[in-house]
Amino acid sequence: MVDRCICFSRPFTELKRIAEREDARDVEALQCKVDFGLKCGLCKPYVQRMLDTGRTRFPVMRKIEFD
Ligand code: FES
Fold this sequence. Notes:
Layout: E1 4-5, E2 10-11, H1 12-22, H2 27-31, H3 44-53, H4 63-66
Antiparallel strand pairs: 1-2
FE2/S2 (inorganic) cluster binds next to loops.
């Protein structure tokens, strides 16, 4: 399961709390409030899905599911 930005050691539960507090609705808006997703970037589609669904744990997505 994927539940965090590994590069920045940020659990999605923490990112979700910040997004709700700051009313950040997409990855770019959330990145203005907290550092994540700026190294390998693999967490970003998961974070967007978190923002869309409220979920904080995801099965590993295949590349086709990122689009
Ligand atoms: S896992 Fe988030 S930038 Fe690498």
